[in-house]
Amino acid sequence: MYTFSSKLKTFSIILMIIGILGIAYGFLTTPDTIQEVEALEAKSHGEHNGGHEIAKHEAVHEVVEAVKNETTPVVDSIKPTTENSEVVVKDSSSHEVVSTVVAHTEIVKKEEHKVDEHAAHQKHLEHQLHQLQNKPWAALYVPMIFILLLSMGTLAFYAIQQVAQAGWSPVLFRVMQGITAYLPVASVIFFVFLVLTGLHVFETNHLFAWMQEGITDSKSEHYDKIITGKSEYLNFPFWIIRAVIFLIGWNLYRHFSRKNCLAQDEASDNTFYKKNFNISAMFLVFFIVTESISSWDWIMSLDPHWSSTLFGWYVFASFFVSGITTICMVTLYLKNNGYLENVNTSHIHDLAKFMFGISVFWTYLWFSQFMLIWYANIPEEVTYFKTRIDVYTLPFWGAVAMNFVFPLLILINTDFKRISWVLTMAGVVILLGHYVDFFNMIMPATVGENWFIGISEICSLLFFVGLFIFVVFTALTKSPLLPKRNPFIEESKHFHY
Amino acid sequence: MDAVKKTRAAHHHIEEVFTPFPVHGLDKAMGLAPTRIAICAFIYGLVGLSFGTWMMDYIMIQDWPQDIGGKPSMSYIQNMPAFVPVMFEETVFFAAHLMVITFYMRSRLWPFKVAENPDVRTTDDHFLMEVSINNNEEDLISFLKSTGAVEVKSIEKHG
């Protein structure tokens, strides 16, 4: 039996407390009105000599607006110039592009004296306000969904091991069950969050653009034809019912799988093992369907004008590799504290191979999605990557470096895959890298160019990491770390590679 | 396996072992040095990657930078995604083929090579361990018999 070390417990509680304080700070410093945004902008205007930064922001902003909003007169006149500069946009120095756009914009503005600059400015401020108000919510949403899905990745891996009748992994089943113990807790938090968002309980939370009031009403100023076309799928009741089905389905599998596993310990035959085999196979079918749909619902619908067919797989690869990495991290921690006597370096080596392989798989999907859209360059699809590359340059390419280049070079070596500290280091980079990956998927749609990894983001992450550690290691104390009567347990104990 | 371990323990030098199929752990029991072919493959992969990069850069960017369907050909990095499939395949191609050729060269395998088979039965169902004799024929033969040998032969090799 494992005993939760008091040090780790205190550590996780401290993380949660710091997290909550930081989250609260994030919400308290959010501007409530347009006036506050104006004051904020004026302040940063002064800070950046000559307001170059602001000019850049506005230029980028107006380009984005141009794509989004075709009714404003200003935008109509800018449009042709924006298209002309599309060619230049490919240029590696975005600085140049921006200045040409700014120059064009200014010329256009001089020519068009009728333009109501005040109205445009007000519109800009409102847009800015919405993004700034979204910031703490999005900061909360990213680690919330990331760690929820991370424990789902673990659950999927666990189910695969059962169905594949893997001979090496049964000694790790209890570790995986411990990690997936986070799932029920995370599901509740996540579900409450979805309900709060969908019912507009908080004025400041407008993460999902398609939830906006009047968006499907042709008389409303918020009317959006494209979203209206999708509204049979993207509407709150159907969306939340889907979420209920997914979360309940996943939690049921996790509950019964663990129950059967514990019952198998006390049984005299293999009935419970066979039951687990069957429900795992059914779960995997259910999972792959629901995983795809949930990634459209929870992540892709943040950009309701954009769609991608392999998005579900891409999200899956991201959290699957995070789940495997977490199994490896927790196993290493328990092993180094002397709790897993039957786990040897060969087990660790196998986990490391999975980390390596699935990292490459993630890259494959990431690149396939990116390259296909980049190559065809269809305007309604390419804006997704254009915003990310122009505004999120560092996180966008940084995620590739952290999730591909780094693990590729570190984990390719057989000997390195058996060294604890090398794996810990690679694991931390992979996990952070996939956090950034989720950040890249969610932030551009919710806060746009107002992104920053500051107190809100870091503290939200700390809170969920703390909660994760607390729940997982509490769950690990609930049952022995070695399954007793698993048919493959002897083989697993003597596994050697 | 047992015989190999005993022979090693008795400090007889094993010239060669012939088996009809791979025996897991035989190399460890014989104390053979681990292979370095994976390191070779990694280096060949890097060569392939460089070759792919150089080739696409020279052809598409330096030599004749045309505008093909609006793809930016001003610099390599701009059009990089389009070259990745080529770079990837070159890497795999070089790593795989050069590694196989390295293997053939190091293990001296080629078509029309005369088989070095001391006993044809070793390709079917017999295992053969070759130990050289240093003026201790009697001792050695009795030792080998004690390790569970089906047949011990003393032959003189030429060449």
| Proportion in β-strands of chain A | under 5%
Helix proportion range of chain A: over 70%
Mean pLDDT of chain B: 90
Determine the mean pLDDT of chain A: 87
The largest pleated sheet of chain B is described as:
2 strands, antiparallel
Shape of chain B from CA axes?
rod-shaped
* Cα-based radius of gyration of chain B, to the nearest Å: 26 Å
End-to-end distance of chain B, in Å? 29 Å
Q: What order do the helices and strands of chain A follow?
A: HHHHHHHHHHHHHHHHHH
Report how far the terminal alpha carbons of chain A are from each other.
27 Å
The helical percent of chain B reads: 40-55%
The string of secondary-structure elements of chain B, in order, is: HEHHHEH
Number of helices of chain B: 5
Number of structurally distinct domains of chain B: 2
Keywords (chain A): Membrane, Transmembrane, Transmembrane helix
Protein name (chain A): Quinol:cytochrome C oxidoreductase
InterPro entries (chain B): ActD
Keywords (chain B): Membrane, Transmembrane, Transmembrane helix
Describe the model.
The complex is a heterodimer of chains A (497) and B (159). Chain A is mainly alpha-helical and 497 residues long. Chain A folds into 2 domains: 386 residues, no CATH class; 77 residues. Helix content of chain A is 74%, strand content 0%. Chain A is built from 18 helices and no strands. In chain A, α6 packs antiparallel against α8 and α15 runs antiparallel to α16. Chain B is mostly helical. Chain B has 2 domains: 40 residues, no CATH class; 72 residues, no CATH class. Chain B contains 5 helices and 2 strands. Chain B has a two-stranded antiparallel sheet with strand order 1-2. The longest helix of chain B has 27 residues. Chain B starts with a helix and ends in a 13-residue tail after the last helix. Classes of the chains: A mainly alpha (497), B mainly alpha (159). The interface between A and B is small, with 12 and 11 residues.
